[in-house]
UniProtKB/TrEMBL annotation:
The lineage of its organism: Bacteria, Pseudomonadati, Pseudomonadota, Alphaproteobacteria, Rhodobacterales. It comes from Paracoccus spongiarum. Pfam families: Nfu_N, NifU. Belongs to the NifU family. This is NifU family protein. It comes from the Bacteria. Residues 3-89 form the Scaffold protein Nfu/NifU N-terminal domain.
């Protein structure tokens, strides 16, 4: 098994491409080891000292390291953990634990606007950020403000504010006049 690695805009995060399907659909974000109970793959990676977060996508695994850990020491261990997992035949997520569907539900008077926001996110934004090892999902819409949740390499990325303000906010404002601003949520 040959696992490729790619850098991301977030220097604390690397993207690992095992050459196999990781999740059939959706994404799964494990910001802490305590969140990884349903994922044998994430648990195996969190067993490595210095791992700060794991994010699973369709065909990639994004790993975020603790600030004080150099990638030179972590990368070989993460590669080994991913390889061991795929050789074991275990699923990335056990049982009925669903992969993240992505967007939060929204109903009410702004439902049509939210449908447009989600459509633009799904067709224009999410594919681009997935290439960088992350995901951005809709969290809410209130009085012209779109709230987005950043995951994987996008969470804590130094360029995430620029991505939100200059990229996503401009895109949404261009197509949807009711959008005034875009803000991240934790």
């Amino acid at each position: 098994m040959f696992i490729q690695t790619e850098t991301t805009p977030n220097p604390a995060t690397l993207k690992f491409l095992p050459g196999e399907t990781v999740l059939g659909s959706g994404t799964a974000d494990f910001p802490t080891a305590g969140d990884a109970a349903a994922s044998p793959l994430a648990r195996r990676i969190f067993a490595i000292e210095g791992v700060g977060g794991v994010f699973l996508g369709r065909d990639f695994v994004t790993v975020t390291k603790a600030d004080d850990q150099p990638w030179d020491h972590l990368k070989p261990s993460v590669l080994g953990a991913i390889m061991e997992h795929f050789q074991s035949g275990a699923p990335a997520i056990e049982g009925d634990a669903p992969a993240g569907a992505g967007h939060a539900d929204h109903s009410g008077p702004d439902a049509e606007i939210v449908v447009q926001i989600k459509e633009l996110l799904d067709t224009r934004v999410r594919p681009a950020v997935a290439q960088d090892g992350g995901d951005i999902t809709f969290h809410g819409f209130d009085r012209g403000v779109v709230y987005l949740h950043m995951q994987g390499a996008c969470a804590g990325c130094p360029s995430s504010t620029l991505t939100l303000k200059m990229g996503i906010e401009n895109l949404l404002r261009h197509y949807i006049p009711e959008v005034i601003e875009v803000r991240p949520v934790a």
